[in-house]
Amino acid sequence: MAALAVAVVAVSTSAILIRLSAAPSGPMAFWRVSLTWLLLAPLAYRSRGEFGKLRGRDLLSALLAGVALAAHFAAWFESVDRTTVAASVTLVTTQPAFVAVGAAFLLDEELSRGTVIGILVALAGSALMSLDGLLNPGTAPDPLVGNALALAGAVFAGAYVLAGRSVRQRVALVPYVTVVYVVCAGGLLAYTLALGDPLFDYPPREWALFLGMAVGPGLFGHTVINWALAHVESSVVSVSLVGEPVGSTLLALLVLSEIPGLITVAGGAVVLGGIYLTSRARA
């Protein structure tokens, strides 16, 4: 539980670090994932015997998870620059709802009444948050597109979770995340090169931010969350991650002086309520 609390605080810094960086979203995401993988390389070497368990369907699932994670980062990093931190982080956290829908169609898991209610509540909150961009156009550069990208990021995050769900029951953490991070970095590299963004021409401040993204949200955030799943019930992990939008919004207020509008706050509360209902119903 202590590790999970640290992980939630760590992932809450992600949007703030993205906003502080002046680099394009593609290189930012690429270096975050690449540096996270490099930090895990010594552990991957010690666990090299476990890589042999990634065969056939498990290897394919890990590859698909890496592609989905790359799409998630590409969409969400761009979202943070277009809408408010509160809206972007809250909307991207709706991924449990998309996981529930995907599990029903792909894994034949039953959608309970409580799950459906939770999903509908989360979607209603998302629609309410999108109204802020229409009624208060000065709150962010392009809030409607930013909110849409955040929701797309949530869909891809849901695909990432679904692709890796069964693999983690048979394969150790480090080999699995190593394969996922390498594939993800490859996808983000192709995305960056396709856009023509530079990979290396950045000042020391940007490299410090890239490293901060890798150490904080990458190593102490998502990697620790994956570790915690072996020791804490998945329902507890899902509900705990609802704390990320709250932490990010508070940090945005303190670091960026970004005050969310009342509609964003109200919509965010509805979204978080929907995620909580979905997680409880699935538990």
Automatic annotation (TrEMBL):
It holds the Pfam family EamA. Residues 2-130, 146-279 form the EamA domain. The keyword GTP-binding does not apply. Keywords: Membrane, Transmembrane, Transmembrane helix. It comes from Halosegnis marinus. It comes from the Archaea. The lineage of its organism: Archaea, Methanobacteriati, Methanobacteriota, Stenosarchaea group, Halobacteria. The chain crosses the membrane at residues 30-47, 59-77, 83-107, 114-131, 143-162, 174-195, 207-229, 236-256, 262-279. The keyword Transmembrane helix applies. This is DMT family transporter.
